[in-house]
């Protein structure tokens, strides 16, 4: 391998290492438009390196047909770099002004014109030719196309740098780095004309690509990381707010036990478990506070609220390991599962004893009724609730009799 191809090979390896994540990561392929066009630009540059490596090898060995064919590929890759550079600048700026549209149209015209000229060159040497001694010759049209490249690089660089005015410091750094790529490529195109047998264009691609990677891509990755962190923080805050709102909605404001909203949601899940035959070892207790209407009518609603809170404390003190719901003004429900279900009879005995003590001392009294879920008999939660509710009314009658 001659020195020309060796230099280009080193550039290819360095470029591949620097842009490894760009070439590999899904993010640069689909999610981020400037990142996607940047990746396309890097692939175009690497294809140019490949053609340039082969060109140096073929030219040294004076393989005329191979040099001719590879020169066509070389020009095609160079054209792709100019076009993809234009697409990257447009995607990065995210603008739709008249100058950007003109620049975009010029890039397309350049592609079509260059492609047509390369096709014609197979029959008539309008761009270049290789003589019998395997010496490369460029035509005036080739120099005109290089001049057009230089103008496109200069225009894009100047425009990007001018639009940096008034932007944040990080954006100014990005714009100037992108502009520097165009300036470097302009200089290297000029040197390529002056030294056609030196890999000046390759050196320009490597230098410009490193500047873009360090001063634009890494900054954009950091900006995106910060953006993702902010999104995650907003999502976490939203979840906290949602959780707080759900807690408020599912908590009874007067007593602090679970609300009727929570009860409705729980009943839905219970019915689903019954439908699927998954509910086992389950019981429900229905509670009703005695005398609430009388207290409200004779002593006011504040006294009634105190009575409800007292009833809630009594229920929770006895059924401390069970969910307790306030489902109405003076109605509560508790569900018994696991150890609570196993000790349900002793829980009810203790609770009823406490209520009877309150009855004699004039404290809050609560009627209660317990019903066990019977698989195959209770086809819905409602059936189970009705059984417990019926027992609660029986208890209410017995408490009334005790009081008399």
Mean of all residue-level pLDDT scores:
86
Oligomeric form: single chain
What's the total count of β strands? 6
Q: What is the correct CATH architecture of the largest domain? A: Up-down Bundle
Low-confidence stretches: none
**Rg:** 41 Å
How would you characterize this protein structure?
With 404 residues, this protein is α+β, with helices and mostly antiparallel strands. It folds into two domains: 3-233, Rhopdopsin 7-helix transmembrane proteins (Up-down Bundle); 260-403, Alpha-Beta Plaits, CATH 3.30.70. The chain is 73% helix and 8% strand. The chain contains 15 helices and six strands. The strands form two sheets. A four-stranded antiparallel beta sheet has the order 4-5-3-6, with helices on both faces. The protein has a two-stranded antiparallel ribbon with strand order 1-2. A hairpin with a 4-residue loop joins strand 4 (324-326) and strand 5 (331-337). 33% of the residues are buried. The mean pLDDT is 86.
